[in-house]
Amino acid sequence: MGVEDNVTSRSLPDFDVVNSTVGGDNKLGNGGGGSARLKKFSSKELKYFRKKMHANNSSSEEQKFQVRKLQISDKNKGFIQLLSALGDDHIISVVEDESPGKIIATGSIFMEKKFLRNCGKVGHIEDVVVDSNARGLKLGKKIIAFLTEHARLMGCYKVILDCSLENKAFYEKCGFKQKDIQMIKYFIAVLPCSSFISNWAFKLYAIPQL
């Protein structure tokens, strides 16, 4: 077995080829220029190479996967299938106007387990939106009723949501009532007093009839 047989092609070799003299035949059969010998990497050198390779791979992965905002075209890229992995503890409901095939109302709910309630579940209703051209059709009330019933069927002991002052009456008509006051801390400049009052949020909740 020659020297060439002992040198394997690997991404991280234990040996390196080092030129030791100038002139004469190349013992590895590379056709002249200088003789060569094998140098065994030390454990310190191997550790350095492995760390370098890992850093290069990590950098490549970071460049390959970038975070961005959701786009409409993403629905054809597996986004809907990905949402299904959330299960029934997080759903997004919609109302569709079938004639033009357009979504005109939506709302979502997710479940939270409370350790102080023996891991009982609380439903959080969020992102209730109705198309401006579909106002007056009571679609918001339908969305709230659907999400509240889903929470009841999932075993939640209550449903909660946050709303602005102007929407308080609407949610009371949906069976919710005010409980406590929401506290908030912004990471932006303080809003003017008038804006703060108009955006004051109340915490409302409903207890499903089990």
UniProtKB/TrEMBL annotation:
<feature type="transmembrane region" description="Helical">
    <location>
        <begin position="186"/>
        <end position="207"/>
    </location>
</feature>
<comment type="pathway">
    <text>Nucleotide-sugar biosynthesis; UDP-N-acetyl-alpha-D-glucosamine biosynthesis; N-acetyl-alpha-D-glucosamine 1-phosphate from alpha-D-glucosamine 6-phosphate (route I): step 1/2.</text>
</comment>
<dbReference type="GO" id="GO:0004343">
    <property type="term" value="F:glucosamine 6-phosphate N-acetyltransferase activity"/>
</dbReference>
<feature type="domain" description="N-acetyltransferase">
    <location>
        <begin position="53"/>
        <end position="194"/>
    </location>
</feature>
<dbReference type="InterPro" id="IPR000182">
    <property type="entry name" value="GNAT_dom"/>
</dbReference>
<protein>
    <recommendedName>
        <fullName>Glucosamine 6-phosphate N-acetyltransferase</fullName>
        <ecNumber>2.3.1.4</ecNumber>
    </recommendedName>
</protein>
<dbReference type="GO" id="GO:0006048">
    <property type="term" value="P:UDP-N-acetylglucosamine biosynthetic process"/>
</dbReference>
<keyword id="KW-0012">Acyltransferase</keyword>
<comment type="similarity">
    <text>Belongs to the acetyltransferase family. GNA1 subfamily.</text>
</comment>
<comment type="subunit">
    <text>Homodimer.</text>
</comment>
<dbReference type="InterPro" id="IPR039143">
    <property type="entry name" value="GNPNAT1-like"/>
</dbReference>
<keyword id="KW-1133">Transmembrane helix</keyword>
<keyword id="KW-0808">Transferase</keyword>
<dbReference type="InterPro" id="IPR016181">
    <property type="entry name" value="Acyl_CoA_acyltransferase"/>
</dbReference>
<keyword id="KW-0812">Transmembrane</keyword>
<keyword id="KW-0472">Membrane</keyword>
<dbReference type="Pfam" id="PF00583">
    <property type="entry name" value="Acetyltransf_1"/>
</dbReference>
